[in-house]
Amino acid sequence: MKCIIIEDQPPAQRILKKFIEDVNTLELAGIFSDALQAMELIKSEQVDLLFLDIHLPKVSGIDFLKSLPNSPHVILTTAFSEYALESYDLNVIDYLLKPFSFQRFLKAVAKVPSNTLQGGDNAHMEWENPRRFIYVKSGHEHIKVDLDLIEHIDSDSDYTEIVTPEKKYLSHEPLRFWLETLPEKQFKRLHKSHIVNVDRISKLVGNLVYLSGGGKIPIGRAYKEAFLKEILK
Asked: Of the candidates 15, 57, 11, which has an alpha carbon nearest to the alpha carbon of residue 38?
């Protein structure tokens, strides 16, 4: 998808630019500090997706969007949540509240209709898993973690623990966040407190899942039937 950024704050421009560059199905066609600058490109070239800030100089993002007769798909970005309701009345794809994570960015882009992607079925398959790692926020750092190395993710009240064979990473995101963010075919919930990477399972014994890194996870009674049905089918 060819996309443009309409955002007047340089730090936000840089974050969006980095996120777009990290997704191989997105192509950045331009960055604009106000909506009027972007209008000429939208008129002269096919643009599939706008990342549009609401608070802009000269013309607000909302007013600009209302003025477009045939708007590309739009993902709004803003630091103010009170505009969410109005934005959905304009049929935007999603509403990103700053500051947002790469995972939240991916979730928004994944909502763009698949027929927007160039290349038909192959492009859609490529989008299903745009990259094979996540960033885990730890203090002021964002640590890159390979999805295929994650053995399991455990919940402990106020935080979650992402476990790999060599290291554990603490995150303040709830278990629900990881269920919504990670590839659902690869990561399954098997207990109220545990998510497992099914590619790292070495064997199942009774109510225990043994992992290739040496760990073992219990299967919760409420999750057992659905989990085994998914794993053994």
From this structure: 57
pTM of the model: 0.53
Average pLDDT, the chain: 83
Range of the domain at 59: 2-128
Q: Which residues of 96-133 are buried (b: 16+ CB within 10 A; e: fewer)?
A: beeebbbbbbbebbeebeeebbeeeeebeeebeeeeee
Residues 11 and 117 in one domain: yes
Could you tell me which of 7, 82, 1, 98 has the C-alpha nearest to residue 45?
1
Do 17 and 124 have their domain in common? yes
Which tens digit of pLDDT belongs to each residue from 43-96? Answer: 888 899 999 998 888 888 888 888 887 778 999 998 876 655 555 556 788 888
Residue 59 lies in a domain: yes
- Could you give the number of structural domains in the chain? 2
Is 128 a residue whose pLDDT tops 70? no
Asked whether residue 188 falls in the same domain as residue 89, the answer is no
Neighbour count for residue 94 (Cβ, 10 Å): 19
Neighbours of 228 (CB within 10 A): 13
Question: Does 141 reside within a domain?
Answer: no
